[in-house]
Amino acid sequence: EYISAWQVCARHKSSNQPPQGLLQPLPVPHRPWSHIALDFVTGLPLSKGFTVILTIVDRFSKACHLVPPKSLPSSTETANLLIKHLFRLHGLPSEILSDHGPQFVARVWTDFAKHLGAKVSLTSGFHPQTNGQVERMNQELEAMLRCICSSNPAGWSAQLPWVEYAHNSHTSSSTGQSPFEVSLGYQPPLFPSDSASSTSVPQFLRRARRTWNQTRAALQRTAERNRRIADRHRRPAPTYTPGQLVWLSSRDIKVHGSCRKFSPRYLGPFPIAAVLSPVSVRLTLPPSMKVHPV
């Protein structure tokens, strides 16, 4: 007890315990394009004036739209891209998930979402897994572009529509159906046949509703399976209260003035300003720390 209470030991000793906090899956949406996730792919070679890809993922169907801006857009430019490439096709979302990029924490962006009636959800600091769907989409996107454009890296922008089509045609392991099937109710063929069968409106609506119900059930099963697997290697988080002093891991924080090998493993302790969920809190940090407090 004496050692654990001594701040020097608490600050410098590495923990050999499993990470605290059980997996908190995001709620499963009820329909396509009501909950979207956003991210940017940067550092791409110049291709017809484009250097960035805005990745938009529907958390329900796993469908994506890949939009190439000329450069990393501002909050206003990002909002205009969503209006042009998303809202006119799928309507307004009820939730927008993103990281803490400057586009998504600016007042312009929060006001934009507020006028849409959409909730802005941000990932926790140093925890991109919260936005895991779009992170995986970006990895898949980069892998496909590497394969297609290995001999002509500057031609990636011309291949982007086909990469999007390929992803939306591919069966998702989470839903057991392609994003096209979930969001549209059918699988568009790459080369339409001459004898396309027509479907009456009632039949189409019944099939779409059945597909959505099956998709939601599959997503819930996948989320539960992922939670069980993740929780095998984690332990429940303690119950936090506002005002409680806690230590902040320095794993992703640059500590100035000391060798990384001998730098403290934890910083603080800092008081909890607010408890946001069972596994996330907002800390009261000194102004000198340029770190997001959540």
Automatic annotation (TrEMBL):
GO biological process, one term: DNA integration
Signal peptide residues on this chain, from the entry's feature table: none
InterPro entries: Integrase_cat-core, Retrovirus_Pol_polyprotein, RNaseH-like_sf, RNaseH_sf, SH3_Tf2-1
Gene3D superfamilies hit by this protein: Ribonuclease H-like superfamily/Ribonuclease H
Stretches assigned to the Integrase catalytic domain: 28-187
PROSITE patterns membership: INTEGRASE
GO molecular function list: nucleic acid binding
Protein name: Integrase catalytic domain-containing protein
